[in-house]
Structures are given as C-alpha cells and as structure tokens.
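Re: beginner question about structure tokens

> Can someone show what the tokenized structure looks like for a real chain? I only ever see the sequence side.

Sure, here's an example I had lying around. Input first:
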Amino acid sequence: MKLVTFLSKKDPTKSKIGALHKEAVIDFSRTNLPNNMIDFIKMGETGLDIANDYLQLEVGSYFMDEVILKSPILNPNKVLAVGLNYKKHVEEAKDLKDHHSNNVQIQEEYPTIFNKQNSSVNDPYGDVYLPKESSWLDYEGEMGFIIKKECRRVPYENAKDCIYGYTIVNDFTIRDWQFRGPPHTMTMGKSWDTHCPFGPCIVTTDEIIDPHNLNLKTYVNDEERQNTNTNLMTYDCFDLIEYISTAFSLMPGDLIATGTPEGSALATQNWLKHGDRIKVEIDDIGFIENNVINEPKSTTQS
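And the corresponding structure tokens:
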C-alpha cells in the first residue's frame, strides 16, 4: 500500500490520510480508521487489512490534481539520519581540499548517526528555504524508512519486522553551519526549517521486494547529480535498526534516512540557489521534487 497524508484543495484546512490507488487518492476519513498516520501505523496489520478492504470499494477518491500531498507523517517523534553510508561518498569527503572540516577525523568503524529536528519536516513538493545566514545549501537524496512499532535492542535478524514502510528523503544541509567545529555540529547544519522534505508516500514493506536493491537518482534542474543503488550502502536498514535501538527506543512513525551517495554539492561547492529545482526518485517508491526559494521575511518571529 502507498499511504499518504493530504489536503483537499476544496477544503485545505484539515489534513487527511489515505492511499494512492489507480492514479487517485482514496480518502480514509469515511472509515473508522484514525485520521493521523502515526495512530494508523500503531494499528499494524489490522489497520492495513481494514484499509485494503476499503480500497477495493474504490469510493471516496480524489483525482491527483484535487489534492496537495503533505509529508506522510506530519510530525514524526524522531527524525534520524546516517552520514557517510556510501563508500564513494566517504572517498569524496576525504578528497576535499581547503575545507572547513580539514581537522575532523572521519570514522568508519560504526554508523554515523545524527538527528534532524522534526521542525525541519517538509512536504514532498514543498518549497525549500535558502536562509539569509548562508549560501552553502546542499542536497542529499536518500531512501528513508518508517518504524512500525516500539522497539529496543533489536537483533539484526529481527529488524525487518520493525519497519513499516519506505519513503524518499532529501536531507538538505547548510554546510558551513555543519562544519563549525571541530567536531561537526550536525544538528545545526541539518535541521533548518523546510530542510527535510519526504514522501510522496510510505510504501509498505509488502510492496518492496528488496529495499537493498533500489535505484536512487537525484537531479538538479533536470541534470543528473546522483545515481546509485541501495545495495551499495555500507550499513543496510537492518544494521541501522540494530545499532540505533541499542541506545534508545524507536517508536511508531519515527523516520530514519539511510544516507546519501556521492554527487552532492559538497565536492563541487556548486551550492543551490534561488530558483533551483531538485528531484529525488527511487524505484518502487516514486519521486519528490522541491524548489529552492529565498526564505521569506515572514518566517521571522520574535
């Protein structure tokens, strides 16, 4: 199932959840299902069974041009991400010259985990802000996954059962703020408002034959910048659950982005600018696409 959170253009005041079905969006609000994706995820297979029965009726549908897709989960409890999870991206980072982080050691013995504040969450087709404080805005196309149930100290062989579905993430980054240090200040570089668009849906695990064999591509203004396969990740999704859950509990609806391949603007210093359009696509999931705009003055509040 391809689960979405959306607004009806006729009544954009209240978000709804539903599923993509035959080039339409089926609205679950006519059922007894929750109207919040995290609560729906907590229902597990029961929720999916009810939703699937409703899909077969093919009622309560919207055409795609009648809706606005929101981030599948509006407010994840946690947004976690992985740095340097593709070998060629590690090599790319090591080759940087005259760089802000020249004196920072790159460790490769364990996964590099950081958090993006959940206030950075953005819609799959939402505008991404270029802030006045920096011009070093970078893109990072990534596969993400959604946690299915509360879990702690999960062994590798059980990790698959803790994943509800897969999605696409663009881990936008303000590089000069990230490289303040040493050490890196990952949270400050990774958590700017609008800098975590994801979606367009959550594809449940039954529809993804192998999450570790999906093609991923990133385009800037239709120019291909990243092209990889998830089988090249150093630490796969199950490794990440095993490692992260050793330290703390993962909760239903938590989002984990699995890292980006080589090809971001980090190496070229060709930073994103106002008017750029970035598209990330992954096999069997779809694509997200975001325009970069100068951050509006109206976002400043005091």
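Each token stands for a local structural state, so reading them left to right follows the chain. The helical segments are 37-42, 44-57, 87-94, 175-178, 186-190, 237-247, 265-268.
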